[in-house]
Write a structure and sequence with these properties.
Strand content of chain B: under 5%
Number of strands of chain A: 8
Helix content of chain A: 40-55%
Distance between the termini of chain B: 25 Å
Structural class of chain A: alpha+beta
Oligomer: heterodimer
Largest sheet of chain B: none
Mean pLDDT of chain A: 72
Low-confidence stretches of chain B: 1-18
Helix content of chain B: 55-70%
Distance between the termini of chain A: 115 Å
Mean pLDDT of chain B: 76
Number of helices of chain A: 20
Structural class of chain B: mainly alpha
Low-confidence stretches of chain A: 1-9, 40-53, 219-232, 325-332, 459-472, 496-536, 547-572
Number of strands of chain B: 0
Order of helices and strands of chain B: HHHHHHHHHHHHH
Radius of gyration of chain A: 39 Å
Largest sheet of chain A: 5 strands, antiparallel
Strand content of chain A: 5-15%
Shape of chain A: elongated
Radius of gyration of chain B: 20 Å
Strand order of the largest sheet of chain A: 1-2-3-5-4
Order of helices and strands of chain A: HHHEEEHEEEHHEEHHHHHHHHHHHHHH
Largest interface: A-B, 44 and 50 residues
């Protein structure tokens, strides 16, 4: 009676796997290993029927005779859970799938009742991400389900093709969670969540198949007999530890564990066996995903997520906060946004350049006048003020240009905003800076442009996504702080100009005359009008002390005594 | 069966397996102890074929591969190779795979000619059978690592079934085992219990009880054998999953 796979059959009668010549004693190695698991989540279905019966999938012709109302098109596949056929239902002109359960109806009268009960519960599962059940019953000793036909692939095929990016996986997980949560709310546990059971239609929508089938085909504890084959149905690779220990204590959290295995496999292409590395160490994914995946894979059900919906919301929060997938659709949108941003960004750069040119021309003119100009003309010039203003404009214009360059690459959103504002406010090129700045601001405030900037930023960070939790780079902070500082000092200079004009010139010391003015500005109160007279006096005396230091080394030019007319010590 | 562990180890029975042989080796890795040496030798004797298949699949000719395998085991048993065992990779299977990979890459750099032939041969390995077995391996279907894991799983199952058969024979139940072994994975490949009962001159109920006992004993033996190659019993299920993945 010894099985001789060489001559009789090359398939394992239990799991339908192909048997190789070297199989240990002609026994299926997979089934032998499965026997090693302490208990089974779903005991052998063959026991449910009778020992002698072996399931062989009926041919399409045989099936056509039993289902005259359907056109059987082809056998899609078969395994431990039965055989699935593709068929057409002419009355409704739709494609359907027929699943034939590997059960010999005649052998187990109790099964019929259980089948009806479970099938009714399963048929109630009407959800966009669950393969719908149209009909079920028994036809000539065959138990069957007529189900929604999903034209597409299963997740196993997708993972094997290596075309599944981590980002696409993140888009699928919430859909799987939704389906599981819906079923769990209905009190149905899948018990066999694995990539083969997760189908994807042509639009990429998830459809989970075979809900509750493992339980239906398994048997409850009370029905166990001495001869039951305590065998794990399907693959044990996705099974929760408690599911391998005992099939009785299994609840919906076993599905959450299996989901975790599928999740890990989708991200890394490997199974989380042994001491496995967290996903972010294998692929470039957000480090926060590690926590989610590892929590679904907790050995203790109590330490896992308690609801599939929790997994969904956690994943979604990460997806929405971090890099959205640069899918083709997104890329198209990005390209569009970038072209929208390009013109004002170039405008900003040009504004900056014009400012620079203006300053350069002014320096040239100034130098010319100082060298060759008339005495009266020279007297009118205020070289100190011009130098400060020139340097400020040069610096701020550099900011505008830098912001323009960054904006061209859809990066550094705050900088782009600052650049646009500066273009409107700063420099002689304000005539074109003002409209360009407004234009840039209008473009930048558009939501899709903001998204494009976020993508640009994340794309920039892509090589070290794992540091996504870290705050913005110090460089960026420094740059923003620097610009803010420059802006403030620029404004203060502008605001300080009138004060400067009333400062003493007789000291013939540029800085000596400036510092008291600055001391005034940065002091307890910069506003002359609101300053109490007493304080003004004190400040004035402080100014005089300063002046008296006579920093000759800073002297740029001797100012004529005529300019002393503006000096009023008490005004400051 | 040729890959049987030596008698002294095999005879110690289930008690030894319960304490796991690999854990003995790991516990004694800092100092040489006869127990740990014996344990390691018996493990190597059981799982030498996966190593040989790995070396062959790495592209070495039969003769070279035999020399290298023998030399590898000699190094493993003689030198304190075990000191380099990474505690993180605490399984014998992964340890052996890492060790042989490292051995082969070091070997390439050295001149091998001087090392050959001189070393003693601590394990007597049946290379003739090994080679004929290797010739049946599907060509290029798997990487050396995958072939190693697959062969490991098959060797493990062979060992378990051989142990079980031996156990039944010693109780003079050899024919019973032969009849019933097909029931281990399922319900007997089409043979009804009644038919088997008639052939064995037993009642159908008695056959069912015997099958149940056989399955239980098989599961225990399988788990014991796996326990012998991992550091702690907690890892048995996981190792089972890994092997299952390897043969899938």
């Amino acid at each position: 009676m010894k099985r001789t796979p060489m001559t009789e059959t090359h398939q394992c009668p239990e799991c339908g796997a192909e048997l190789t010549v070297d199989a240990p004693r002609g026994l299926c190695p997979a089934c032998l290993l499965k026997q090693g698991f302490e208990s089974s989540p779903a005991e052998n279905l063959a026991e449910t029927a009778a020992p002698a019966s072996r399931f062989t999938a009926p041919t399409s012709e045989e099936l056509a005779r039993r289902f005259p109302q359907l056109e059987i098109l082809e056998l899609l596949g078969q395994g431990g859970m039965g055989a699935v056929y593709k068929a057409r239902q002419p009355s409704l002109d739709r494609l359907v799938a027929i699943k034939i359960l590997p059960i010999d109806a005649g052998r187990d009268p109790a099964f019929a009742e259980r089948f009806t009960r479970e099938a009714r519960a399963l048929a109630r599962l009407s959800h966009p991400h669950i393969v719908g059940i149209y009909d079920f019953g028994q036809a000539d000793g065959l138990y069957y389900f007529v189900m929604e036909y999903v034209d597409g692939v299963n997740l196993r095929q997708l993972v094997a093709s290596r075309q599944l990016s981590p980002q696409q996986a993140l888009a699928l997980v919430p859909q799987i969670c939704e389906a599981l949560q819906f079923a769990h709310d209905e009190g149905i546990v899948h018990r066999d969540v694995k990539p083969e059971n997760i189908l994807l239609d042509k639009r990429g929508r998830v459809k989970i198949a075979d809900f509750g089938l493992a339980k239906l085909l398994g048997r409850t504890a009370g029905e166990a007999t001495l001869t039951r084959v305590e065998q794990v149905m399907g693959t044990p690779l996705y099974m929760a530890p408690e599911q391998m220990q005992s099939s009785h204590a299994v609840d919906h959290r076993a599905d959450i564990y299996s989901l975790g295995v599928v999740f890990y496999e989708m991200l890394t292409g490997e199974l989380p066996l042994g001491r496995f590395a967290p996903p972010s160490q294998k692929v470039h994914v957000d480090v926060r995903l590690d926590e989610i995946v590892l929590r679904t894979l907790e050995r203790e059900p109590d330490r896992r997520y308690q609801h599939a919906s929790d997994v969904k919301s956690e994943v979604e929060s990460i997806v929405s906060r971090s890099a959205p997938t640069p899918t083709p659709v997104d890329n198209v949108a990005s390209t569009k946004c970038c072209s929208q941003v390009r013109a004002p960004a170039i405008g900003l750069v040009i504004t900056g350049i014009l400012n620079w040119i203006w300053v350069t021309v002014m320096v040239a003119v100034f130098s010319y006048v100082m060298t060759f100009g008339l005495e009266s003309e020279r007297r009118q010039l205020e070289p100190q003020l011009l130098t400060v203003v020139g340097i400020t404009i040069l610096t701020l214009s550099a900011c505008i240009m830098f912001a323009g360059f960054k904006m061209l690459r859809c990066q550094a959103y705050p900088l782009a905003i600052i650049g646009s504002l500066l273009a409107m406010l700063v420099g002689p090129a304000i005539l074109i800076g003002l409209p360009i700045g407004i234009w840039a601001l209008v473009v930048l405030t558009q939501p899709e442009v903001r998204r494009a900037f976020r993508r640009g930023r994340d794309g920039d960070r892509a090589p070290n996504l794992r540091r996504a939790q870290a705050p913005a780079r110090p460089f960026q902070l420094l740059a923003v702080a620097g610009f803010a500082l420059m802006l403030v000092s620029g404004l203060l200079f502008v605001a300080g100009s009138p004060t400067i004009n009333v400062m003493p010139r007789n000291s013939a010391n540029f800085l000596g005359s400036r510092w008291p003015a600055r001391a005034c500005l940065f002091g307890s109160s910069p506003r002359r009008s609101v300053r109490p007279r007493k304080n003004r006096r004190r400040n004035a005396s402080r100014s005089n002390q300063h002046r008296s230091r006579k920093r000759a080394s800073f002297t740029l030019t001797e100012l004529p005594a005529a300019s002393q007319r503006v000096y009023e010590p008490s005004v400051c | 069966m040729k890959t049987q562990p030596p008698n002294d180890v095999a005879e110690q029975g289930a008690r030894v397996f319960a304490t796991t042989r690999w854990s003995i080796v790991l516990a004694a890795q800092d100092r040489e102890s006869p127990d740990s040496r014996k344990a390691l030798a018996s493990l190597c004797l059981t799982y030498w074929y996966p190593v040989y298949a790995f070396v062959r699949r790495r592209g070495h000719a039969a003769h070279d591969a035999q020399d290298l395998t023998q030399e590898f085991f000699a190094t493993l048993l003689e030198k304190s190779y075990l000191r380099s065992v990474d505690r993180e990779r605490g399984r014998f299977r992964t340890f052996l795979l890492t060790a042989v990979s490292r051995f082969l890459s070091n070997q390439r750099e050295r001149s091998r000619a001087s090392k050959r032939g001189g070393g003693n041969q601590p394990l007597s390995l049946d290379f003739a059978t090994g080679e004929s077995r290797y010739r049946h391996e599907p060509a290029d279907a798997w990487t050396p690592e995958r072939l190693f894991d697959r062969r490991w799983a098959f060797t493990l199952l062979d060992t378990v079934l051989a142990r079980l058969e031996d156990e039944y024979r010693r109780q003079e139940k050899g024919p019973l085992f032969e009849r019933l072994q097909d029931y281990i994975t399922g319900d007997g490949g089409g043979s009804a219990y009644a038919e088997t009962a008639a052939a064995l001159d037993m009642t159908e109920g008695a056959v069912k009880v015997a099958v149940h006992r056989l399955r239980r004993r098989y599961r225990e033996t399988l788990r014991e054998e796996i326990a012998a190659t991992v550091e702690s019993p907690d890892e048995i299920d996981d190792e089972l999953k890994r092997l299952f993945d390897a043969i899938a």
